[in-house]
Amino acid sequence: MNIVILGAAESGVGAALLAQAKGHAVFVSDRGAILASYKEKLMQAGIEFEENQHTLARVLAADEVVKSPGIPEKAPVIQALREQQTPIISEIEFAGRYTKAKCICITGTNGKTTTTLLTYHLLKEAGLKVGLGGNVGRSFAEQVIADEHDYYVLEISSFQLDDTHEFRPWIAVLLNITPDHLDRYNYSLSEYAHAKLRIARKQDSSGYFIYNADDENITRHFQAALRPVMKMPFGMERRADLHLAGYYKAATQLCVDLLPGYYSETETINTAQSPLIGEHNRQNVLAAVLAARTAGVGIAQIEGALATFRNADHRLQAVGEVAGVEYINDSKATNVEAAWYALEGIKTPIVWIAGGTDKGNDYSSLLDLAGQKVRALVCLGVDNAKLRTAFEGVVPHLEETQSMADAVRRAGALAQPGDVVLLSPCCASFDLFKNYEDRGRQFAAAVQELRPSESA
């Protein structure tokens, strides 16, 4: 088969290597420049590629196209392929054809990476042969070449799900659905919700669907997409109207019922040793624990592994304490809901650093929390007018800055011992930084710069 790969980053190069390993003719095309490390991989494998262009004749000659998730449907090359009805699939769909391993797939607007990493950690610490892939870790397709694992834990975005057709997770996890990336879905929350629900649409009675029953958008939209799968709803509290597979009976006491609706025995798992902060992370832990228990990981193994988990950087990450003030890097919080989770999860007074490239944010949901918890707001952005308008009169003190070093210095000066300085921007990073990782690294570096002056 003649397979063309569009996009030559982690997923595209992995798909190209797998396609070649399975005997297909492969051509890789990227409209931008290809990173040197990926180019080296392609050259070593003898795979033909082009960069900074799509040669349409070569692309349109494909029997099938594997598309990187970042390429939008409206891209001219995709429109041309659709016109001649060339099949377009994602790396996830392609790799799924070549493995018999059980796939645990996790999606949601917020919390995907944390839940994926934690689920992987729980399985790995229990001694299971497990791979990590999708939006995090190594390419799923590249791992499938050797296919040494019994399980894969995959973080999957709506963009990746858009181009899955026959892919069937063993366990599908849906954490939440809130407005995000709506420009890719005709500004329709319903279209976006149905993209997320593609994770479960091919499941059958041998599969498990773990979903957040407290999320209104999931409960509104999921019935239409659901197949005869073992439903495992979870929620923060036990409910009279629905048998939950997981819920909390106390702050750190999690109840699990692996056969909800069948009045099976309820197990209790202690989550006190988990280092994760905030209500949203209690939901993430619940989902990960349900997936791990379904995969056969024991209760004692789960409790032990929770204590040793280290989350990905830039997600409510403690980066230092200076003069009794704790500094928390939540640079990944690029939307309002993620910032709400951060503000909600911290129980001490906060000096909040926020701002950046506004994505049409409505800050109204943050006003009550900010009024209760935020001692001062340091606005960090090229244009802070919208933030100022939203929070003036809500927080006691508000000021502006346009450099991270200055923002951290000002926040440190405004904080009192016992406070938290929280970077949780609510916004994209592109006005002052390369990306959210760059923003988070600059925050951590600026915190380290505070130390000498404090000890002098």
Q: Helical region count?
A: 17
Number of domains: 3
CATH level 4 superfamily of the largest domain: Mur-like, catalytic domain
Number of strands: 20
CATH architecture label name of the largest domain = 3-Layer(aba) Sandwich
Using the coordinates shown, work out and report the CATH topology of the largest domain.
Answer: UDP-N-acetylmuramoyl-L-alanine:D-glutamate ligase
Trace the largest sheet across and list its strands.
7-8-6-9-10-11
Q: What structural class results from the helix and strand content?
A: alpha/beta
The first-to-last residue Cα distance is 68 Å
**Rg over C-alpha atoms, rounded to the nearest angstrom:** 23 Å
Largest sheet: 6 strands, parallel
Q: What's the rounded overall pLDDT mean?
A: 92
Strand % is 15-25%
Give an overview of the whole structure.
The protein has helices at residues 10-21, 36-45, 56-60, 76-83, 91-96, 112-125, 140-146, 158-162, 189-197, 216-225, 279-294, 299-307, 336-345, 367-373, 385-391, 404-414, 436-455, and strands at 2-6, 25-29, 48-50, 64-67, 88-89, 102-107, 130-134, 151-155, 171-174, 208-212, 230-234, 246-250, 253-256, 267-270, 317-322, 325-329, 350-354, 374-380, 398-401, 420-423. The chain is α/β, with parallel strands linked by helices and 456 residues long. It folds into 3 domains: 2-89, 3-Layer(aba) Sandwich (Rossmann fold), CATH 3.40.50; 95-308, UDP-N-acetylmuramoyl-L-alanine:D-glutamate ligase (3-Layer(aba) Sandwich), CATH 3.40.1190.10; 317-450, Mur ligase, C-terminal domain (Protein-Tyrosine Phosphatase, Chain A, Alpha-Beta Complex), CATH 3.90.190. The strands form 4 sheets. A 6-stranded parallel β-sheet has the order 7-8-6-9-10-11, with helices on one face. A 6-stranded mixed β-sheet has the order 15-16-20-17-18-19, with helices on both faces. Strands 3-2-1-4-5 form a 5-stranded parallel β-sheet. β18 (374-380), α15 and β19 form a beta-alpha-beta unit. The termini are far apart. The mean pLDDT is 92.
